[in-house]
Amino acid sequence: MSAVGIGNALAGSKAQYHLTIAGENALMLYFDQRIDPAISALVQQACALIKAGLADDVVDILPSYASVLVIFNPFSSDLYRVQAQLQHCLAQLQTGDSRSGKLVELPVYYSEESGPDLALIAQTKNISIDEVIERHQAISYRVYAIGFAPGFAYLGEVDPLLQMPRLATPRAKVPRGAVAIADRQTAIYPAPSPGGWNLIGLCPTRMFNPQAEPAMPVAVGDEVRFVAIDKAEFIRLGGELPDAMQAGAKP
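Request: output the structure for the sequence above.
Response:
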């Protein structure tokens, strides 16, 4: 098969997908481009099948919402061989089961002190701060992707009533552990960084620790549930309040 033909999905495959060239030693696997637990489950199946089927030929496998980037070793294989291997692996994909990961509970200190945008969300949605907190905890969230920083897990989808646009002006610095909402997603900042998401609390769990094994408590395909804790428990679990909070000032 020529390189041009890589763009066509296998006829008769149980799951529809599309393969394209993404570089001299990379292929991109696309599924239906939407945020959906069933699509996420296919992404996770594909990653496992590719890892098992291509073995040492693979340098890295990078999953996202509805795609998988496969980077292979050009010294041990080539595009045509990897294409054939991928198609063989992907013929085993099964549709229908959207559960593919573990359930992870993460504690959150929700308050106006730790979540400076809680009041804004409550006011915008004409509900109480307590209801914002209750609704955020009420459902489980799927880990759809990890990035823009190590440990930054994109979780979806939030209660429609809690959906909020990103801030018009991003903050210069968001503290590590900040729990936030933007559009249909929620996330935890793994390290201090600029950010434009709406902050509603702080999580003491480290979302990225290169000295730990595994380095991240969640992976793509896992389910996350948030559990409210008070300030004392947050500190006991290793949480750190930003300097402004410790001084009693509003962040």
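The longest helix spans residues 37-54.
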